[in-house]
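FIELD: query
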Amino acid sequence: MAITITKEPENIYPAYNDSFIEFSSDLADNNKAEITVYPTSIFTKVFVLYPDADGNYLFNLKEVVKVIFNQSGFKDSNFFTTSYSKSITGLYLLQEITIKVYNDITSEFESNAYEFYKAVKQIGENITVNPFQLLSYSPNGIDHALTYFEGFPFHFDLQRVKWAGKEITVKSLNSGNTSDVFLVTAAGAFRINIDRGGGNNWTSDNVLPLMTGLNRLEILENGVFKSNLWLTKKEKCNGIYLKWFNRDGGFSHFLFDKYFIESVTGKDIGTIGNDEFNNIESITGELLSIGKEASRSFILKASYNKDEYEILKDIFTSPFVQVYTSFEAYVEGRFIDVSINGSLSNSNKKTNNEIAINVELPEMITAKL
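FIELD: result
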């Protein structure tokens, strides 16, 4: 007797796409299957399946995996500025299941585990197989291009490091220098801070000094090459710094121009009658406001190149966007939640294009009766 799986998610699979498992069994007269999903503290009941006319069972892991990943929402639960690296959680998942097939007399079972990461792919996009890819856009899972604005918090995440105790280093092909060791303390996703904000970064702390302009970097595990990072460093920067959850399961950053348009709007919550009894020459009005609802927004602009386009376009589909409260490099601030409106048009004939977006800040706190 055996369970035969004919369709299943392969490699490290994006969590927000359909992930079908199709299987059959040679157990005589089988008529039902049960899927046990772990941990059973969350999934307290089994999923019951029945075969189609050809004896095949079909189960979609998507909703199960979303339950696990969505426990922390889309916020950056792993954000830290106290060190330059850390093993992190919530971006990678090894999902275990047990399949049990029944007939009227007996049963057979098989256990499997599938790997997922907190990402989504569009039709036509490839699922790349390098676990050391950055959680950011890459055409092949090996080569990555990012822009770094010195003086603002900036990090990148590796999809998965398999074993605790591994040593991650970054080598500069510009200088030939290698970074300090970033030690992996747990299997799973791994974060490396390039800039911790407030003036602490790779260059100032001599972790791996970076030149202004293009830095050609290699990411190594125990001295073995794993992926490329073409990092363009910009310095002496002021502006509006945004951070957002991207389609590859990580977080992207970009600095918009320091010149922007600010709008403040407000409206009355309601009014009450003026209870003063005066003659016409003493009356200032018949109604009094009980308070205002007010909001504030920025219209931001920035120019970008073809590599930055793939990073920036995620901002319009991201469920989580933040703005940094400091507009000056090397001055420490904090990230606060905002919403984004706008659209992005890109001409592939041009070396540089321009993005313009409307950023809605949190509702203003006003005085109310």
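FIELD: remark
The chain has a mean pLDDT of 91.
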